[in-house]
Amino acid sequence: MSRLLIVANRLPIAVSRVDGALHVERSPGGLATGLSGPHSKSDALWIGWPGDIQDLSGDEHRALEQRLAELRAKPVWIPPEDLKEFYEGFSNGALWPLFHHLLDQMPLHVHGWDAYERANARFADEVCRQYTEGDLIWVHDYQLMLLPKMLRDRMPDARIGFFLHIPFPASELFRTIAHRERLLEGVLGADLVGFHTAGYMRSFASSLLRVLGIASNVDRVYYGQREVRLGVFPMGVDTEKFATLADSPAVRTRTAELCAMDDCAIVLGVDRLDYTKGIRRRLLAFEKFLYDHPEFHGRVRLIQVAVPSRTSVEAYQDFRNEVDASIGRINGAFGTAQWAPIHYLYRGIDEVELSALYCAADVLLVTPVRDGMNLVAKEFVASRTDDGGVLVLSEFAGAASELAEAVMMNPFDVDRAAEIFHRALTLPADERLVRMRALRRRVLSYDVHHWVRSSLESLEEASDQPDHAVPISQRAARLEAVGQQMRDAPALLLILGYDGTLVPFASAPELSRPDEELLELLRRLAARPNTDIHLVSGSSRDVIEQRFGDIPIALHAEYGFWERARGASSWQGGEMPSQAWREPVVAILENFTARTPGSLVEEKTVSVAWHYRMAEPEYGAFQANELVIHLTQMLSNEPVEIVSDDKLIEVRATGVNKGLVVPRLLDDAPRGAFVVAMGDDRNDEQLFAALDGHGTSIHVGDGTSRAHLRVPDIDSARRLLAGLFD
Ligand code: ADQ
């Protein structure tokens, strides 16, 4: 049975020193609660940092490890000299503000990359030590973005998931961070990458395209010879726990006390004291509301609970001072001897008090400037077993994409926010009820257990290798064996693609020139006894002739429509297909070219192609989609196929494809010849299909393929061929 390894920066256990002795207790965070079910079952193990506990004696160290082991926790010790730079420096000093779109909180000079890398490597060491084959590894959050790749490099067949708890930024902003490539590549080591919202997933896909040049197919990305799935898993809360608490005698008593304090309506804010939570603008909006609505003076109170957070980070210290000052100013300006508009609790509160506040609140303000999800909003809804209360929710919280019945607000528009606070306080009772009931239905249906279940099921599915695929760890050996078979074969038939297989794609077809090393390799192959080489390309005769005309190998242009036999000087074509469709197609493609800077049209005998490799990547892909829709409608009754390939849309006469070459070549091949086909794109898939068990197919590069084997890139493809002379 598979075991779950949960890997997060923090253990769900707080270790502290109380009166000199070590004290270990479970810490209640959202992640810890959510994962407590799977953590307590099936042998699961939680791997993480136990907190900053200095000066442990040898005995204490052993005793602590022992106690943690009983709680299924394995500590990762980060040396003090790295801790500050890893945690406060790169993680919370740079990634946290950037991912929340708060560039003004970014330091001028980002520090801590090396420590971040070393800390991730320490996690990798511990996970590798604990891992046994078949385990599911689930890595959490921005502190560990390098970890999936580090694990993949060391355990190629491991099943690895990654979940990002904070937003993923727009690609325009993500591009500003140093080491951006490494961060993306790090995450792509996983089989499944999860986000709270579809928006974050799209931003991630957009960064992959712009930073690494990797296009994703909605929820799939091909990278490093593997398929990586992307998924949306909005995290929920432990609704049962919050409902049980809300209905408990202790909470009921406390709620009644809070409501009976005076006849003030309670407006509540519950946050970690973090500059992303929108507390300062919330206070400004509340101030404006008090200014605009004197009739509420003495009749409303904002209870702001702020749990201290990251107190050693300078930006948080400044932020705290600013919040203190704002509250002082507002209370000073509006308060009376009997009434203070804001009650400020700067501390963590226990779950009974928290639940009672949720139950007593008339309005909860969740107004972050950006927030991955925001569990406070969901905890409030889960606690309202009385269907009461109004949730005011920022559009910029991940929760907003699920909780549409909340009263939505834009936290940046302080004046409107003040009006919305007023509206929330005066919402008619029937509307309040309708909204809260709808919110409860959703929050109760998608609780934290649903989140865990759906995430882990998707991870199992994403990491299941298709039956025909060779496990990553065995690929090198299989390739080596095929190389040996090629060397030993009495006769060899090689069917090779060109662009993307033997040379990198050029920005325009006429620029894809073979280098001298490739030409030399082909000349040597041509001279090798009992070796038959067929170069099968989609390019035109002219292009292929110019590049390879003087090498004695067989050439096939336009997917095999044209053939120049080995040693021959002229080309033989197939039967000329109808061309009636050509003129209107060229007109459409030229029209798209005019509207898509960087794209171009290529005319060939049996096809017309639109290339957009040099266009702006996202706009090019968008236009390509439009073009396909347009062409599909226009050409539905014409004898043509519309083929989308790597940065290319091609309209081609029906029946012309690389697969047609294969039967001819197999018929002519000497008995017992070993047949190898190598290619990289969809046209080559037809070639592989046509081989139908009569040869070995090898896919070059990323992407799905029906090929028997894969090589990661063009250099490896060339190395395999050069290996014939070893
Ligand atoms: P956080 O930024 O910590 O989490 P949030 O989702 O609101 O934000 O969770 C805060 C938790 O702390 C809640 O469970 C809440 O009850 C508790 N809490 C807050 N103030 C408290 C107080 N004064 N006393 C006691 N408890 C208090 C990150 C992301 C979020 C994402 C979560 C989960 O920033 O966007 O929702 O992870 O993925």
Q: Which features characterize this protein?
A:
single chain, 726 residues, alpha/beta, Rossmann fold, nine-stranded mixed beta sheet, 25 helices, 43% helix, binds adenosine-5'-diphosphate-glucose
Rg, Å, rounded: 32 Å
Number of helices: 25
End-to-end separation: 45 Å
Which stretches are poorly predicted, pLDDT < 50 over at least 5 residues? none
Question: What level of helicity do the residues show?
Answer: 40-55%
Q: Quote the CATH topology of the largest domain.
A: Rossmann fold
**How are the strands ordered across the major sheet?**
5-4-1-6-7-8-11-10-9
Bound molecules: adenosine-5'-diphosphate-glucose
Q: Identify the CATH class of the largest domain.
A: Alpha Beta
CATH homology superfamily of the largest domain = Glycogen Phosphorylase B
> Which architecture of the largest domain does the CATH hierarchy give at level 2?
3-Layer(aba) Sandwich
Beta content: 15-25%
The tally of strands reads: 29
Word description of this protein:
The protein is an alpha/beta fold and 726 residues long. It has four domains: 4-76 and 118-232, Rossmann fold (3-Layer(aba) Sandwich); 239-445, Glycogen Phosphorylase B (Rossmann fold); 472-575 and 657-725, HAD superfamily/HAD-like (Rossmann fold); 582-653, Alpha-Beta Plaits (2-Layer Sandwich). The strands form five sheets. It has a nine-stranded mixed β-sheet with strand order 5-4-1-6-7-8-11-10-9, with helices on both faces. An eight-stranded mixed β-sheet has the order 22-21-20-19-18-27-28-29, with helices on both faces. Helices cover 43% and strands 19% of the residues. Bound molecules: adenosine-5'-diphosphate-glucose. The site of adenosine-5'-diphosphate-glucose has 19 residues, from β12, β13 and α14. Adenosine-5'-diphosphate-glucose binds at residues 30, 165-166, 235, 270-272, 305, 307, 348-349, 354, 371-376, 379.
